[in-house]
Amino acid sequence: MFKPVCSVEELRDSTPFHFSENGRDYILIKLGNEIFALDGICTHEYAELWNGFVTEDVLTCPLHLSQFDVRTGEVVTPPAEKPLRKYSVKVEHGRVYVDI
Ligand code: FES
């Protein structure tokens, strides 16, 4: 079910945007004209990925520097082994909706 999260204007390129819904944390990442939604907590240990950093299309965890593909959530660099869950995003009238 798509939930409204924020306006497109609140997102900055390559800067993780944190939001939570029903006690779960998520991030949005804008890359140019595309917006991706992923789980907000690292799959390795507990780290808040909105405090991580994005270079090109790779998200780096701030704790042990695992890297994830922003577009798919797949692990690019360990120690994380499991991918981040990815969620569908749509934009309507300047609002961002995520299917969570
Ligand atoms: S908690 Fe993210 S790499 Fe360890």
TrEMBL record:
Residues 3-98 form the Rieske domain. Keywords: 2Fe-2S, Iron, Iron-sulfur, Metal-binding. InterPro entries: Rieske_2Fe-2S, Rieske_2Fe-2S_sf. This is Rieske domain-containing protein. The lineage of its organism: Archaea, Candidatus Marsarchaeota, Candidatus Marsarchaeota group 1. One of its GO terms (molecular function) is 2 iron, 2 sulfur cluster binding. Gene3D superfamilies: Rieske [2Fe-2S] iron-sulphur domain (2.102.10.10). Its cofactor is [2Fe-2S] cluster. It comes from Candidatus Marsarchaeota G1 archaeon BE_D.
